[in-house]
Amino acid sequence: MNNACYRYLAFFIVLASFFSCKDEGPVILSIDPKIGTGDEILLITGTGFGEERNGAYITVGGSPPVSSAYLDWNDSYISVSFPEAGSGILYVHRNGKRSNPAVFANQNSIPEVKQGSNGVAPLVEQVKPVSGPIGSLITIQGSEFGVTREGSGVFFALSARTPESDGAMLGASELDYELWNDREIRVRVPDGVTSGNLEVRTKGGASTPVAFTVTGQPGIKTFGEQQRYTITYTVDVQIMNAVLPNTLYLWIPEPVSSASQRNIERLERSMLPLAEQYQGTSIFQLNDLTTDTYTGIKLSYSVDVYTVETSVRTQLVRRALGSSNMASLYTMPSTLVPSDDERIKALASDIIGREQNPYEIARRLYEWLINEGGIDRLSRPATALEALETQRADSWATSLLFCALARASGVSAIPIAGVLVNQLNQVFPHYWAEFWLEDFGWVPLDPTLGAGAIPPDFDTPDNPSTYYFGNLDNQRITFSRGLAVFSQMDPQGRITTRDRAYALQSLWEEAVGGLADYTTLWSDIIISGKYAP
Asked: Is the domain defined by 27-109 classed in CATH 3.40.50.300?
């Protein structure tokens, strides 16, 4: 073999090595213990942690341990002594990438939440920068923020169209936080906020407000008429045959807090959860259930829902860069959203043509769905691809099909799940979608209602096909934004999922140990009160 051949061979070996070593980021497979006191050694197994820690770290509830706490670190195994850990979501961070979440519950912090060291209001000393667009990262420095974020948050001013909404503020969502410790917070400017005051709120109180300016918006989003709901729902469990020990875990959805759905207040809870506000759910743990017994969980909330109106100047919309937070998270294919399927990609290309503007791409996809998608409220295709093949789609398949077409076109999109509430206070499971515009945030759309597939006794605007692109009514309650993916509590556990329920999540129940025969009855959402404040 001559020298030129050797050079080519070496080149291809290096190239193959490069692609085979592509960094997909850390993945958590399990943690042990899931419930502890914080004094034990916490063991994390998975992949992609790195053979050495080398600047990588873990967080629980946004708080990292001190460097000396790490006992062992390799690519598939981490052990750490973390006595100050509270209950919260655990992540592994490496090379700027964050793993899937796992939940750790500290028995010493249930139900009490660990907060600032002196129980006093947080002090904000500096915000950098003091202006930026939606989705940009800001750093807040100060003191008394608390070692964990549970029950605390950074709040921004909301745009308001009605006098009763003046002065309203919105807390950042779980995905917006990059870091939280007692002296520093890194958080992204959340969707739906406007220029005004920013403040940090903890159990000890609220910080002095700091002015923050939202810049670079290619349009306006406003929240108008308010509707307040009181809702109740239950899960009833009947045990027919069981031996000890056993455990039943239930992931029960909670109403989602967002710019259009706020002031969520829990009115009743018949049992304390193992963990709450975990990816939009409360996790309940029922231990050592016995044969021929009944138990149940009842939840009740009040929720304020606002109409959403958007006005976008399309010439100012810019396409998301590949490094954008939303572009990287919500343009990826998934089991529910098969945006990498060749049929989806071909159809998306036919619909959008040479259009490059994300807003106009979303509009073209919406118009195709309401005119050509065969939307029917009562049809039940199994998947988004089946809906495409049969040209028959209910709201579930329609929302997934829009997201698949949008992601195949390079536009970030998520399916939304919840219930519609008609004039008789009857509820209907329902699904819609949102797409992301850089520097603007999420834009809602409801192709099912836009196509005229409307439940009985539901109040609709004069022109649904136009209204439901970019705008949304207040006759709905949201339980999930995107699919919540949960890890099993026990590798040997038996899991149960629920299709077309009022939330999108990978599992709802897990039975561990000697639960040989049992049933669960998940009630519908019951509207026990509705009024406009």
From this structure: no
